[in-house]
Amino acid sequence: xxxxxxxxxxxxxxxxxxxxxxxTNIVNRLTEEGVAGTAASTAMQCKLxxxxxxxxxxxxFNQDMGFKTLAVQKVGTKGYTAxxxxxxxxxxxxxxxxxxxxxIGVDMNTLKKTLGENFSAFWKVYSGVKGGKTSQGxxxxxxxxxxxxxxxxxxxxxxxxRFEIAATSYVDEFTxxxxxxxxxxxxxxxxx
Length: 192
Hints:
The protein is built from five helices and six strands. By secondary structure, it is an alpha+beta fold.
């Protein structure tokens, strides 16, 4: 009876932890797929809009509400898509459609100052699109309140152009329900 009780208690503690780990992995994978799907569909929508509006120049992307509505879409609660351009002869990466109008046309290397040591992870994903490739990965971002939070980003080319779509979202937006389940499970096992 004592041996069975110990086995039961061990299972009561290990099974919920394993369930939470596996749930977190599944949620992360679904998040990655969802963000990638948003990036791909946004890139296709922008391609069609640009093809039907050849007069639209990049400096006007953020003011043309028809185009901006396509290029800057919500991802989750606080995530979004943005449009940026591969560097030209000057070697500067610039964003042309973004939720934050202050960075339009700005050299994106200036984010080094804001992100500090977290810049390299962001830059690896952001600039990983060279050669028409899709790039994706995790990085830490400084939020408007000064807090650093983990984000996931997927960058895809807009076929036939020099432009890219980045779709990014805070990771905790999707993992909070799993964390809540973990705390409830722990409370139940502690009570048991």
